Amino acid sequence: MVTDPIADLLNRIRNAAQRGHDAVVVPASKMKGEILRILKEEGFIGPFEKSDAGGHPAFKIELRYVEQGRPVIAGTARISRPGRRVYVGKQDVPKTRGGLGVTIVSTSKGVMTERECRRAGLGGEVLCSVW
Questions:
Q1: CATH classification of the domain holding 52
Q2: Pairwise CA distance, residues 114 & 42, whole Å
């Protein structure tokens, strides 16, 4: 059993990318699906698809690399954890690396990036940052 599924997702992606794998399989959930959708839209990962791994729903994620096999994802940070939730108002939504990364926020209107939050005037729970 995993106590923090979002941190597990980020670690599996980062570890697989550092090892040079083409794809990685992670257990599926709605929240993970939304996070993966944002990472794909922002260009951090390739396409992903839902499948069954050992009878359980899972996502197969294709990883992306830049020149000389360097992974596109240089780093990840889990902001709000099960032991310490982090909420921000619409005026306090953080940027990641001066706008070079993406911060993923769970709002009342769904999971979105920090840029979408500012545009919509929403705050929420800051899930993670990817750069």
A1: 3.30.1370.30
A2: 12
